[in-house]
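Page 37, continued from 36.
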């Protein structure tokens, strides 16, 4: 049958359909209570940091996390290394707020550098974006060395910055072959800056991105030598 013949057939049969034949009632989506104000964790979120302690975190080596908690903020202690969640995650929605330390004499990649590593491997850059030129695929909001953000929505040094991240984990076949690359959507302070970006592989400092098969992994936060502060971190498994 030709395409036009097929279309006519579909149009004719559509007229015979009952509207109810294209409506479904199950599975019913679960009820989720939103946070009281935007940015607060909804009822089904796993709260990773609520201002009190690092009980959901360990060091990169799996030992006690050495960052400090001050005034409800979790602050990088330079030189103590990255921290990662005890929990393992795949597809997720993630909320993170961060604040850059005083700029002092630091510039570019040395000013307020940290990072949010989805599944410990794929870095969404955390950097001071207030009048701080650097390579654009390494600025705040970049997927490090892969994708520059479509806008710089960072406000001012010293102010809290709000990331919301929507992550689709990469899928690997039985033999470890990549079947579906990861995809990431990000808003910074409510502004869309990464729109369903197809991640090319790990976010390497040197060399090109590659994929190596993995399953669910911890969320990791980077120690890049500056005292970046974090608060209100929560995640929803999808
Ligand atoms: Mg970084």
């Amino acid at each position: 049958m030709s395409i036009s013949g097929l279309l006519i057939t579909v149009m004719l049969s559509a007229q015979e359909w009952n509207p109810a034949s294209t409506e479904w009632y199950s599975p019913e989506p679960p009820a989720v209570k939103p946070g009281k104000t935007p940015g607060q964790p909804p009822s089904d979120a796993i709260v990773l940091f609520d201002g009190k302690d690092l009980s959901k975190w360990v060091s990169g080596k799996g030992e006690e996390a050495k960052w400090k908690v001050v005034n409800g903020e979790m602050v990088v202690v330079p030189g103590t290394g990255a921290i990662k969640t005890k929990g393992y995650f795949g597809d997720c929605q993630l909320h993170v707020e961060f604040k850059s330390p005083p700029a002092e004499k630091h510039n570019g990649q040395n000013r307020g550098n940290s990072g949010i590593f989805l599944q410990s491997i794929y870095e969404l850059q955390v950097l001071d974006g207030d009048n701080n030129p650097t390579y654009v695929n390494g600025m705040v909001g970049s997927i490090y060395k892969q994708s520059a953000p479509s806008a710089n929505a960072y406000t001012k040094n010293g102010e809290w910055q709000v990331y919301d991240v929507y992550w689709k984990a990469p899928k690997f076949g039985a033999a470890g072959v990549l079947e579906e690359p990861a995809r990431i959507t990000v808003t910074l302070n409510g502004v869309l800056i990464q729109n369903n970006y197809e991640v090319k592989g790990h976010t390497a400092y040197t060399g090109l991105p590659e994929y190596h098969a993995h399953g669910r992994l911890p969320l990791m936060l980077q120690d890049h030598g500056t005292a970046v502060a974090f608060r209100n971190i929560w995640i929803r498994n999808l």
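The chain is about 5% helix and 30% strand. Flag for discussion at group meeting. The chain has a mean pLDDT of 95.
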